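S1.2 Input.
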Amino acid sequence: MIGLSLFKHRKSTTLSSNKPGFTIVELLVVIVVIGILAAITIVSYTGISQKAKISTLQSDLSNASKQIKLFQAASPKNDYPTDIVCPTTGDTEICIKPSGSNLYTGGYTYNNTSNPKVFKLVETNGSLAYSITNSTAVAAVAALSCPTGYIVVPGSATYGTSDFCVMKYEAKNVGGVATSQAALLPWRSLGQANTVTTAAAACAGCHLITEAEWMTIAQNVLRVASNWDNGAGVHTVGTGYIYSGHNNDYPSPTTKLDADTNDSNGYYGTGAVDPSNQRRTLTLSNNEVIWDFAGNAWEWTSGSVQSPIIQPGASGGLAFRDWTAITNPGTLPINPSPAATGIAGASSWTTAQGIGRTYSNSDEVAPRGFVRGGSASGLSWAGVLSLNMSYAIGSLGSDIGFRVAK
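S1.3 Output.
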């Protein structure tokens, strides 16, 4: 009996040790498999969501392109619309609304003077950006990533530019690095050559703004009605004046100003209020806002001129003149005149429209650097088309700042 009992006890022990269960290795395998399945699910969802956003962007742009082309077909001059942003204020405009969370922040650009006439529309959703043009049937990726403090500028067929990034504010000296920020006064007194080097060091692919890029911005803001004011609340391109920034010697002669992070506070620091030409902000066609593009501090561009290239001018030597007084247009590769913008009526614009003047001399043969915009004491000289050719390339220019593009 004792032997039988011992046998039974051993048998029971053996059966107990063979009960089914998971080893640590098996548990780890199960956890890994679950993790893989979860990752696949998340990736699949993200992919589906991304595809849905892309689909709405492509659909929006396709529909917008059709509306723009229908507008052109009905236009007496076969022109594309001058604006598509809602709400519109003119009979020549149409209203095209993006769907969902899509935005036309990439901008609508057009050229009704080129042959053939062209347009481009960019739409974004988060990090996604797609574009369509007059010659493309399907929207394509149009990604453009700008550094912090920079804004996207729609390209211009007139000046041969594609979309690019530019400093929202005049360059500021932050630890020896050219930085686009509201705080601090404009960084000045570098001279054109040192400015070129400093701008290139601001970021990968950065450079001092070129003449083509300056004129692209000028042409763009000149075409936006909200940048114009007749003093009675009417905003129409060519009527009244375009805002020309801080240029009236207030609060004291030659005083530069910092900026504000609030774009709706465009009269910041000037002591002026609406209506006044002293507003320091200008809005681009893609609703981006740029500060101090006219007034506050002159700005170097990378442009320069010397014989045999001829700068625009008139008899009588160097002097500030309205663009309508220029008798010799010169031979600059980028035409700086209002007429070159292709905007209706621009060829007759003067300081009365707030565009600025040119300080130039077509008889000048010495090397000169290009200085743009205007200063805090520039008065009627300041403006988005102001061009000062009085500085030699080696001049430091205590009143001259700069702006970086990418």
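S1.4 Remarks. Residues 1-17 have pLDDT under 50 and may be disordered.
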